[in-house]
Each structure stands twice: as C-alpha cells, then as structure tokens.
Amino acid sequence: MPIGSEMSLFFTQSSGNLANRYWCLIILCLVVLEMQIASSALIMSLRNHHKKQHNRRPMLQANQSTCALFVGTWVKDDTYPLYESSNCPFIDPQFNCQMYGRPDSDYLKYRWQPLNCELPRFNGLEFLEKMRGKTVMFVGDSLGRNQYESLICIILAGVPATTSTQMSRGEPVSIFKFLDYGISIVYYKAPYLVDIDVVQGKRILKLEDISGNGNAWRNADVLLFNTGHWWIHQGGEQGWDYMESGGTYYKDMDRLVALEKGLRTWANWIDSNIDSSSTRVFFQSISPTHYDPSEWSGVATGVASTKNCYGETTPMSGTVNPREYPDQMRVVDDVITDMHNPAYLLDITMLSQLRKDCHPSIYSGDLSPEQRANPYRSADCSHWCLPGLPDTWNQLFYTALLF
C-alpha cells in the first residue's frame, strides 16, 4: 500500500476514534448530568416529603433508634391498667365502665408497642416535677374531656395520697390543680374550636372567628386540641342552626369544606397568637368510632355477626386496620402542614381503630335500664372506657412532651 494511502487510512481511523471518543465523552457527561438532576430531584422530593410528613408521623429518638410512635401493635400486658377506676373518683359516669357493670376486663390489659422501640411507662411524679408551675390545657369536644380525665387519673396513681389537689367543674372550663406543684390540668369545651354565638335564638357557627374561645387559651404552657365528631352530626344532634363564612349564612355546606375552614381559622390564630418558643401546641388526630362491624367482622362476605361495638372484648389483630384513613384526617394533615409553626400531631387514629373493644357500649352511667336493654340502639361506640385507650393517648402525649 502506498505511504500516502497508509497515512490517509491512519488519519481516517484516528479521526474516527477521536469522534467516537468525543461522542462517548458527550454521552458520559449527559448521563452524569442526568444522574445529578435525578439525584437533586430525589433529594428535594425527600425533603418535601419529610416536610409534609413531619407532623403526620412524629418521630422519637429512643433506645438508639428512630421510633415511629404511632405505628405498631397491641400486646397483652398483665401490668396494666395504670390505675383502677375505684381509685379515681373524677371519672365521669359516661366513661366509668367498670362501675356501671362491664363484666369483662381483658380490654384493660393491652399495651401499645411501637414497631422498633419501647414507650416509657408513665411516671406521675416525673410529670409533675418537669411540668412544675405550668398549665396544661385540653381544648375540644368530649373526647378531649375523656383524655383530660385519663391524665388526672394516671398522675394520681403515681403520687402519694397526701398530694394536695383541687377540682372545679364548670362550663366550658374544668380545672384540676396539683397544688404542691403549681400545676393546672384544664379542660376547655370547644367542640368546633371556632366560636359559636347565639343570635336571635339561632346558633351561628362562625367558621372564620375564634377570638372568643382563643382568649381563654393564651396563657397555657401546653395546649392539646381536638375536633372532628361534632362536624358530622345531623338533625337533633347538630350543634348549630347556621354556618357563617365570609359574611354569608348557610343552612349547611359540605362538612369537610366547613371543617377545613374552621381548622384554618384555628391554625391562623395559633400562628398569630402563640409563641412556639414558650408554648407547646399539640393536635390530637380524629378519634375513630366503631358503629360499623363490617370494619372488623364479615369483611369478606359483607355479613357482620354484631351490630356495633357491643360485646366486643378483644382488639383487632395486626398493625393496620383495613379501614381507610378518615377523610377528616386528610383535612387535618393539610392544615397542619401549612402552618407557620406546625402543631405536633398526636396521630392516634389508626392505633385507636384497632380497639373496637374499648368503648363504654352500654356500660355507662348516662344510660337508663331501658337503654341498656337495647344495646343495638343505645351503645356508645364513640367515647372510651376509663381506664382504657385514652391512657395510651396520654402515654404518647407524655413521651412526645417530655422525651
């Protein structure tokens, strides 16, 4: 082959190799760039996910691991309950199941077990020492009162009988004081959180006004809010005649829309009036009811063996209730996520859904003998026995507050 032809072939091959290398380099750069973009997108996605979920699933450092407080299972524990109803005279008849004839007691023997850690056992003396001089206020509906009375009973079970206390019951405020420690445990009844006024004999639920109720909350050191059940009441159980929003009065509106309006009014008030550096704010998620037995029995066939929670004596098994996460909780999640200083969400909904066995049913001092004789019409499957499930709510509250 002539020298010129060899040189031409050499340069042709070299040029081809250089071109191939050039395109390989470009492709490599594009791959690296795409990976960086994808990585950045993933990081941003995780950050956004963490930001959005921070209050959905609060986390706790415990036993050298990250503990998801609200994901776990119920386990039998014979060291429970944390107190006896006979030793706590402050339990309302509505919640005092043992006093009013509940024949079984195994429902008292369950402890909440998070998946990867142990909850600290409630220590009444430690609570009083760490909260000395402070006011803890529960704000909301009767589920808040359920939890308020539970907290009083748990603390009393862990302190000497000589501890000085004082109780005053009122409407809308009830106060229990541990005088030796300067601590006040308060319940403030506000089923909707926002204000409800009476105008010309009509009850007006003011979806964008909370100033009346809010003035009572300003000086608390710890605030724990709840709402939900009263927003879905109908007919004679409905707590209002008109809703007011934007100066317009409504006989009714989509209840989730109304709930969101009310919660955003609450959230804006918290952000504008509460100093998060000195006041801790918690929101208790929606407490489930157990009026529909298809949630736990006859799921496959659609045939239930019972008509409500009456006669239920054991929890559902497993870690997840097949029932869908309530729509009300999706509203709560969205509102809290959008807060400037988000409240800490005590997400007790799913763990409580497993406890179909913990309601007063017919074992309530609020029922007549005739009502007790008709459990399928009269059973209370909304509130909870004391001792019982609200003690676990308070154990989670205690953990989130002090650890």
TrEMBL record:
<dbReference type="Pfam" id="PF14416">
    <property type="entry name" value="PMR5N"/>
</dbReference>
<protein>
    <recommendedName>
        <fullName>Trichome birefringence-like N-terminal domain-containing protein</fullName>
    </recommendedName>
</protein>
<comment type="similarity">
    <text>Belongs to the PC-esterase family. TBL subfamily.</text>
</comment>
<keyword id="KW-0812">Transmembrane</keyword>
<keyword id="KW-0472">Membrane</keyword>
<keyword id="KW-0735">Signal-anchor</keyword>
<dbReference type="InterPro" id="IPR026057">
    <property type="entry name" value="TBL_C"/>
</dbReference>
<keyword id="KW-1133">Transmembrane helix</keyword>
<feature type="domain" description="Trichome birefringence-like C-terminal">
    <location>
        <begin position="119"/>
        <end position="399"/>
    </location>
</feature>
<feature type="domain" description="Trichome birefringence-like N-terminal">
    <location>
        <begin position="66"/>
        <end position="118"/>
    </location>
</feature>
<feature type="transmembrane region" description="Helical">
    <location>
        <begin position="20"/>
        <end position="46"/>
    </location>
</feature>
<dbReference type="InterPro" id="IPR025846">
    <property type="entry name" value="TBL_N"/>
</dbReference>
<dbReference type="InterPro" id="IPR029962">
    <property type="entry name" value="TBL"/>
</dbReference>
<dbReference type="Pfam" id="PF13839">
    <property type="entry name" value="PC-Esterase"/>
</dbReference>
